Amino acid sequence: MASSIKIVLRKKPNQDGTFPIAIRITKDRKSTYTYLGYSVTEAQWDAKEHKVKKNHPNSTRLNNLIENKKTELSDKLIELQVQQKDTSVSAIRKQIKPKQHTSFFTQAGAYIENMRKEGKYNRVLTEEARIKHFKSFLDEGDITFPEIDVPLLNRFRAYLKSERKVSERTIINHLILIRTVYNQAIAGDIVDRKYYPFGKGKIGIKFPDSIKLGLVPKEVRALETVDLSDNTYYNHARNLWLMAFYFAGMRVSDVLRLKWSDFQDDRLHYTMGKNKKTGSLKTPDKVIGILSQYRQDPKKHNLIFPELKVLDDLDDTYHVQRKISYAVKRLNTALEEVAKRAEITKPVTMHIARHTFGNISGDKIPIQRLQELYRHSSITTTIGYQSSFINKTADDALDAVLNME
């Protein structure tokens, strides 16, 4: 059955005696109404022609509004039918319901809460800080999605650079947050896509190239051999860094989760926490020496290293990530001192172990093999970890041309 659209005056009067003007849409003998926000008296309404009489002071403007709204709804109904979408009364009601431009910060709060429930502690911390920066930029005021346009985002970018003194990469991360919340609002039919301020000809998002500076073999050997016998925690921090390096740049979060049961038949079998990809690696002899230092420790949760043994429930993802975050900060502080003792001037953090493996591997293994070891979905990501090799290749090519002997 075809849908019908009709302009009507609702039967229930307002307190002032006027009646609301509404558009009635009927499908399969069921009706839904959308109100125009204007009311007239019965004497000002032409029930036969379904329009406002000339005795109303704004009859021409109201009748134009009625016709425009009727045409708009008719177009939406035709679009639904052409797309072969559900055209039940409930579906039609959803389509014609005016969008309430909900506060950006209300939606951002829901976004944060979802991450909290998913146990993403680190993401919650960083994204909350970015939301706070956006709110400070707006002088603690609220904002609707249509108000977030290209000029405003350009001003926010300038604010972050000049007032917050943050890097271009950090600025991009702020914009990605806003884009993510905006996309969720569009998906939830909270805001119309026509207001979307991102994309071609609008706000583009592209991370700047960054230099991932890892250690060279000489520096790794210095780290391996420096005497730390006077400080057990410094030695422990070094052990964890070397474990990450020896296992092809394993993430620190995965190192801290390692269990004795992960080692079987001289191989490590584990699942990456970040992307849930599984794999197996041979256990290097150097790792066996490190593991021997922990065999007499308490075996809570069958964990090798102590950082997560204080937790009662390893399935509580949020608190596990929270504890890992605290542990990494402490480990990185210790590694600063270890680097000084080893006479290494470059920054040494747990994450640098990952870049170090990538840099040293550059002229030893194919990029595709490194991608497998890192378990990257995109080889573009892997290439960033071989930056020193790429530079070396370019240098060798330059020398080959200039040394014309």
Automatic annotation (TrEMBL):
GO terms for molecular function: DNA binding. Keywords: DNA integration, DNA recombination, DNA-binding. GO terms for biological process: DNA integration; DNA recombination. The keyword DNA-binding applies. Residues 210-399 form the Tyr recombinase domain. Residues 102-186 form the Core-binding (CB) domain. It comes from the Bacteria. Belongs to the 'phage' integrase family. This is Integrase family protein. It comes from Spirosoma linguale (strain ATCC 33905 / DSM 74 / LMG 10896 / Claus 1).
